[in-house]
Write a structure and sequence with these properties.
Blueprint: E1 5-10, H1 14-23, E2 27-29, E3 37-41, E4 46-51, H2 53-56, E5 74-78, H3 82-94, E6 98-105, E7 109-115, E8 121-127, H4 129-143
Length: about 140
């Protein structure tokens, strides 16, 4: 069986949040979506479950955090290229998201920082694994 992850997020407006997640490349699953929850697939293994505060409250007995005021999690999403990272960020901003930080280019890794309309943080990134390994080795050698 394939392991999957379902990320539940409280959102103020299901329709607006659904539009945002579709804009960044998710596909809505109408079989598991209604006025209180929307299921959006990022990949075959990752699904965002967007829930109204009332529905989200049925999943936990803890107070629901305001992601605009505090951070509980950040989601780093791997993309195929630098251009895909920029396209993701542009789509997020056009769909009501907010830029947290512009492009950060480490040579072997390129990233951006954005938030959805509810303040949930995303770090779309591209990385060259071979170059990242080489950079780590150089850092370890310099520290010795």
């Amino acid at each position: 069986m394939t392991k999957r992850i379902f990320i539940s997020l409280p959102v103020a407006d299901i329709a607006a949040s659904t539009a945002f997640y579709e804009a960044i490349g998710c596909t809505r699953d109408s079989d598991f979506s209604n006025d209180a929850v929307a299921s959006l697939h990022w990949s075959d293994a990752i699904t965002f479950m967007l829930a109204t505060p009332a529905f989200y409250g049925t999943l936990t007995s803890k107070p629901i955090a305001d992601a605009k005021a505090s951070s509980a999690a950040l989601f780093a999403l791997s993309l195929a290229s630098r251009a895909a990272v920029d396209a993701f960020a542009a789509a997020a901003l056009a769909a009501g998201g907010r830029e947290v930080h512009g492009a950060e280019d480490e040579g072997f890794m390129y990233s951006r920082g954005v938030e959805d309309p509810d303040g949930n943080g995303f770090g779309p990134f591209w990385m060259d694994p071979d170059a990242a390994t080489d950079a780590l080795r150089e850092t370890e050698t310099a520290a010795s």
